[in-house]
Amino acid sequence: MPHYLPAQIGMPLDEVDTPALILDMEAFEANLQRLTDSLVGRDVMLRPHAKSHKCPQIAMRQIALGAVGVCCQKVSEAEAMVEGGVPDVLIANEVIGATKLRRLAALARQAKITVCADDVGNVLQLDKAAAEGGVILDVLVEVNVGANRCGVAPGAPALAVAVAIAQSKHLRYAGLQAYQGGAQHVRAVEDRRVAINQAVGYVNETLALIAQAGLPRGKVTGAGTGTYLFEASSAVYDEIQVGSYIFMDADYARNEWTESGIPRFEHSLFVWSTVMSRARADVAIVDAGLKAFSVDSGMPRVVDNTQVEFLKASDEHGVIALHGQSGFALGDKIKLIPGHCDPTVNLYDHYVCVRQNRVEALWPITARGALW
Fold first, then answer.
1. In sequence order, what are the residues at sequence separation of 6 or more whose Cβ sits closer than 8 angstroms to the Cβ of residue 60?
2. What's the pTM value of the predicted model, to 2 decimals?
3. Which of 8, 24, 216, 259 is deepest in the core (most CB within 10 A)?
4. What is the DSSP code (8-state) at residue 203?
């Protein structure tokens, strides 16, 4: 089957085929600048998370605005970033398995690579892979600061992993990975603040023991779009790992932002869809369904129309309840704001980059499907 592109450079947006993943360049660039401006005067470095965009072109634009590098979740994502010119990648995750560890060591010969560990056994595996690959790997201890996902318990358990790293011949202890992912979509500002204050407490407890053991402090890295100014203001975090700020999905929009200090970023990522059936007067059926966007964080929203409701999705269809609203004629094209940007991006081969309703570029989503 020949590879088909949904758009051509210079094409008006109305002519772009659907479904397509649209990146509004003006909103995207405003978001990049807004984050940069919000960090002026704060003693933290920016390391955006590339799992959100999976695109070296975006990563390089983030680096051009001062980011020290990017984060990834998988070795394959990191490979895509390094191949695309990114010189410094943190795999903010554990890497398990001989094949992945060999690839990790090989990648560390091409760029600065840091990885996380939360288990002494994995530290031994990392040391062996680094030795066989002829590299020294930087390793962070991932500490569970409230997300209850990966991460060793703070305090003495985290210290034990740090000591194991420091004693390894082919590893360098680099600090702590302390991401409170569970706080990012907590709606109330004060509840998010409380969660991050608790995370800071766990980090400080661990840092105190690390200092007592005579280990270097290393860096503390973490944070996300929903809380990053809380971590940046803590005097504890050295790096922030924001990701979704460049796109802003429908679920993030449900957070409270007033009084947080965190700027309200603009929606820049849209699923472009076509009304394909009006057989019933009360609904419009569009050609974008479960294969066009992720629904783990809820259904998408129709842009600029809060009166209609995206009711449900099947594989290839979406059902929009019109609630008496006019428009939505057969063939009309509409923008949908996805509920969750990261897994939605992973469904597409390209961003259709649009400026003033005209296609400016097609950026490949190089790390699409990079799950291993």
1. 84, 85, 86
2. 0.96
3. 24
4. H
Q: What is the DSSP letter of 97?
A: S
Q: Among candidates 189, 191, 185, 308, which has minimal Cα distance to 253?
A: 185
Helix (H) or strand (E) holding 230: helix 228-232
Which residue's structure tokens are 């991460």?
A: 151
Query: Which letter, b or e, does each residue of 127-137 get, where b requires 16 or more Cβ atoms within 10 Å of its Cβ?
Result: bebbbebebeb
The tokens 């428009």 sit on which residue?
327
Banded model confidence at residue 6, pLDDT cuts 50, 70, 90: confident
The answer to whether the Cα torsion of 163, 164, 167, 170 is positive or negative is negative
The secondary structure of 99-138, three-state, reads: HHHHHHHHHCCCCEEEEEECCHHHHHHHHHHHHHHCCCEE
**Mind listing the pLDDT tens digit for each residue in 184-202?**
999 999 999 999 999 999 9
Using DSSP's 3-state secondary structure scheme, residue 176 falls into strand
Sequence-distant (6+) residues with CB within 8 A of 135 are 105, 108, 109, 170
Domain map (residue ranges) of the chain: 13-20+265-364, 39-248
Same topology between domain 13-20+265-364 and domain 39-248: no
CA pair distance 207, 201, nearest whole angstrom = 10
pLDDT in tens, 312-340: 999 999 999 999 999 999 999 999 999 99
d(CA 284, CA 25): 28
Kind plus residue range of the DSSP H or E element containing 228:
helix 228-232
Rounded-to-integer distance, Cα 88 and Cα 238, Å: 16
In the block, tokens 């704001």 appear at 337
Per the document, the length of the chain is: 372
CATH of 13-20+265-364, one of 2.40.37.20, 3.30.365.10, 2.40.50.140, 3.30.1490.20: 2.40.37.20
Q: Which of 55, 44, 46 is nearest to 21 (CA)?
A: 55
